[in-house]
Write a structure and sequence with these properties.
By secondary structure, the chain is an alpha/beta fold. It contains seven helices and 14 strands. It comes from Chitinibacter fontanus.
Length: 217
């Protein structure tokens, strides 16, 4: 999982990154709207933690701009504003959840997992896609009840494809998601990992030639 934090408070931003790292969640931290992704092509994140009051503008405006641009990435608003009108404005503006400062990082991470489950159309921490079962937090997968012996990279690939079953994930996007803080995985290596994963799944897992990959729901 790779998270974008947009928060100007230095202490909170650092604490959030440390808490996420402890949960094996990578993140990038930006402090201004000007440094935020502008379009869907730049939004290579699984979830966004967005403060409402930033040095160069309002998080509300950025949220509305993203949703207007068709960006569907889950967004959790984090703010000191506790008024009901502010919470309603955030949710009506396209936020997936709203959490008031100060908050426990454990609660925030639980809320993140909840919005990601909803985004993946899963009701619990065990994802079910037909005969395929995935437990993201335990890094386990099984097919027809039989455990799958997946390498860490194969499991990571399976999880990325399972987030949007039936949707083609472009090769470039998938390669970058595997190494969100470094250079994208080489396409040749990506093909090898996907070939191995396809063999272990023993199910339709097509390569859409010239475009990307998808996992059938």
């Amino acid at each position: 999982m790779h998270i974008l934090i947009i928060e100007d408070d230095l202490d909170l931003g650092f604490a959030l990154q440390q808490a996420l790292k402890a949960e094996d969640i990578s993140s990038e931290w930006r402090r201004n709207i000007a440094d935020a992704p502008r379009g869907a092509q730049d939004m290579e994140f699984d979830c966004v933690l967005l403060d409402l009051t930033l040095p160069d503008g309002l998080g509300f405006d950025l949220l509305k701009r993203w949703r207007k641009a068709g960006i569907a990435t889950p967004i959790i608003v984090i703010t000191a504003r506790s008024a009901l009108d502010d919470r309603l404005a955030g949710l009506d503006g396209g936020a997936d959840d709203f959490i008031i400062k100060p908050f426990a990082t454990a609660e925030l991470i639980a809320r993140m997992r909840a919005v990601l489950r909803r985004y993946a159309q899963q009701a619990s921490d065990i994802w079910q896609l037909g005969e395929l079962q995935i437990e993201p937090r335990r890094h386990l997968a099984s097919l027809n009840g039989a455990p799958l012996d997946l390498s860490p990279r194969e499991f990571q690939l399976l999880l990325e494809l399972a987030r949007e079953p039936g949707v083609v994930v472009p090769k470039g996007a998938l390669a970058q998601r595997l190494e969100p803080l470094g250079d994208a995985v080489d396409f040749g290596a990506l093909e090898v990992h996907l070939s191995n994963l396809r063999a272990k799944l023993a199910r339709a897992h097509p390569h859409v030639r010239g475009v990307g990959y998808m996992l059938l729901p």
